[in-house]
Design brief:
Layout lengths: L2 H14 L6 H12 L1 H5 L3 H18 L1 H12 L16 H13 L9 H6 L4 H20 L12 H13 L7 H11 L4 H30 L6 H28 L3 H20 L1
Helix pairs in contact: 1-2, 1-4, 1-12, 2-8, 2-13, 4-11, 4-12, 5-6, 6-9, 6-11, 8-10, 8-13, 9-10, 10-11, 11-12
Length: 277
């Protein structure tokens, strides 16, 4: 793999992973234009490093929140107060508890992992899912956000958002779009829905990185491409950090309607490219 190819793939990962536009959908569309499968095939280690870059970017941006969660969880062994009147004393620990609950539904998708991965080759399907992502964003923009935060969201809220995240493993569906829409639908504040969505992706991306690394070990590693891998990883990391900051700003100052129209255009384009090529 050349350095320029690694930079291109790193940019796509960094931009599309955290914008509500589906990274898998964009890999598919760009693949039709530039035949990325030819330059990414056999580079599972690189995919694992891209996931790691996304994971690190969330940890960098949300380090104060992550540190607070670790400190509060370790400060006591009994999680009982999280459900009682004393929960306001442990907002970070309660947020951690809600993230754990929101992650559990991902286990439902594991038995279908191979079938889900096979959908990556179906460009028309991915195009339709991108169009659906746009519809979700359009609807989300017109919802009236609630006032719930880490202290007031319920166990049911966390499980519902987590269930939607497990559905978003389908290629073409944006994980962030699905989870943010679900968060607003259950009454979360829009800015908290964005923060919860990004924190919720930590275990999901970690799991994807582990699976990709396991595949790399089985298939073998192209050691000559490792320098290019690291460059692509660095590009993905820097881009992801910038995109997360942009998304947090948008969640406070504006809505996501523009992304809906963008997903519709890219989804239709994906279908047209498949029919042409």
């Amino acid at each position: 793999m050349s350095i320029w190819n690694a930079v291109l793939l790193g940019l796509i990962q960094g931009i599309a992973e955290f914008l509500p536009i589906s990274s898998s959908g964009h890999f598919s569309v760009v693949n039709n234009l530039f035949k990325l499968s030819d330059i990414s095939e056999g580079h599972a280690l690189f995919q694992s490093l891209l996931y790691l870059a996304s994971l690190l970017s969330v940890c960098i941006v949300y380090w104060p929140e992550i540190r607070a969660m670790v400190f509060e969880v370790l400060s006591f062994a009994d999680l009982g107060p999280l459900a009682g009147q004393e929960r306001a004393r442990y907002p970070a620990a309660r947020c951690f508890f809600m993230l754990v609950l929101g992650t559990l539904p991902l286990l439902l998708a594991l038995p279908f992992n191979s079938r889900i991965e096979a959908l990556n080759d179906r460009d028309i399907f991915i195009g339709v899912m991108l169009i659906l992502t746009g519809c979700l964003l359009y609807v989300s923009d017109r919802m009236i956000p609630g006032k719930k935060n880490a202290n007031t969201m319920t166990v049911t809220d966390a499980l519902l958002v987590g269930l939607c995240q497990s559905v978003s493993t389908i290629p073409g569906l944006s994980r962030s779009a699905v989870t943010i829409t679900a968060g607003v639908a259950v009454g979360l504040r829009r800015d908290f829905a964005v923060n919860y969505s990004f924190l919720l992706c930590i275990p999901a991306i970690f799991g994807a990185a582990v699976l990709s690394f396991g595949k790399a070990v089985r298939d073998g590693i192209d050691w000559h491409s490792v320098p290019a891998y690291l460059v692509g990883m660095a590009v993905a990391l820097l881009t992801s950090v910038a995109i997360i900051h942009i998304m947090r700003y948008i969640s406070k100052k504006a809505r996501f309607g523009g992304f809906a129209y963008y997903c519709w255009v890219v989804g239709v384009l994906s279908v047209i490219l498949h029919l042409i090529f």
